[in-house]
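Exercise 7b. Backbone tokens:
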């Protein structure tokens, strides 16, 4: 790893315990541990993206840094081209200088948001990138876009580095979490992580004069086919343990990928009545801030990471 990365002791990659897996491996020795990433930057793509929630990109979009591999193993992941831990990480040889150049080139076009997607297992690398971007005089709003499977001790070190947390809250059902994402402990881990993000940012999403997020917390939940009961429990957790005043992005965009072609019920699309039931519970619980999706949105959120611009922008 380049000396410029120089992670502080609490982000040690010599005995990695950055994410909840706490593998304890020496990532300088090679791509080991659950995530199969080493001490390099592990980038899959740096791209302009206009498909995020309206308060994150606006008309200009957000500069999103997509990391390769993941600390979950979601069978249905739409980013499977880059998230599978047995695949090659395409940007593994990138230097900090090259990464920051790619980011600042996009920032120079007027984009003032910088998002990091799937950063949970690559937090030291993310921190180094942010420090260098700021060292060069840029002050973009930093968005931490994670799967929610984050370690509280790591999140505490990000309190003054991250402006907007954008986590998933995938499951409150440990059986589904184990079967579909390889993390039976996801409900408890994500609950603790979300409580920490909430402690840091509260329930108010602070917006600038253009209506774009400057600071706060947005929680995403993707409703999965055949898993309405799990979605209802997720919403109840958020309302009871955090607040129904948080900003919620309730997504209907599920679309089966080839890996689940033979796995019922993940091999079918979400039914309108399933999504309607979850939306009704959201309204019953008093959530008023955030977004629901048009049901046809599943046809519009399918990145192709074999292209230079995965989202066709």
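Sequence design result:
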């Amino acid at each position: 790893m380049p000396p410029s990365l120089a992670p502080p002791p609490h982000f040690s990659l010599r005995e990695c315990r950055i994410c909840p897996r706490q593998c304890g491996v020496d990532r300088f020795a090679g791509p080991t541990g659950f995530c199969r990433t080493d001490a390099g930057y592990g980038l899959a793509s740096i791209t302009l993206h206009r498909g995020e929630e309206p308060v994150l990109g606006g008309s200009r979009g957000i500069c999103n840094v997509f990391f390769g591999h993941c600390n979950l193993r979601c069978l249905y992941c739409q980013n499977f081209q880059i998230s599978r831990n047995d695949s090659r990480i395409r940007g593994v040889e990138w230097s900090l200088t090259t990464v920051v150049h790619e980011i600042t080139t996009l920032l120079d076009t007027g984009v003032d948001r910088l998002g990091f997607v799937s950063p949970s297992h690559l937090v030291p690398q993310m921190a180094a990138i942010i420090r260098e971007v700021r060292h060069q005089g840029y002050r973009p709003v930093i968005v931490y876009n994670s799967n929610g499977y984050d370690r509280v001790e790591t999140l505490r070190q990000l309190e003054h580095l991250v402006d907007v947390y954008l986590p998933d809250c995938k499951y409150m059902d440990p059986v589904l979490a184990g079967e579909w994402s390889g993390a039976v402990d996801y409900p408890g881990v994500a609950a603790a992580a979300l409580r920490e993000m909430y402690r840091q940012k509260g329930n108010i999403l602070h917006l600038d004069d253009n209506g774009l997020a400057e600071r706060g917390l947005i929680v995403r939940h993707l409703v999965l086919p055949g898993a309405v009961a799990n979605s209802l429990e997720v919403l109840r957790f958020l309302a009871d343990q955090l607040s129904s005043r948080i900003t919620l992005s309730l997504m209907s965009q599920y679309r089966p990928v080839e890996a689940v072609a033979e796995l019922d019920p993940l091999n079918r699309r979400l039914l309108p009545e399933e999504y309607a039931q979850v939306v009704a519970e959201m309204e019953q619980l008093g959530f008023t801030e955030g977004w629901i999706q048009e049901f046809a949105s599943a046809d519009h959120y399918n990145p192709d990471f074999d292209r230079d611009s995965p989202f066709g922008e």
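Instructor comment: The domain at 9-299 is CATH 3.20.20.70 (TIM Barrel). The chain has one domain: 9-299.
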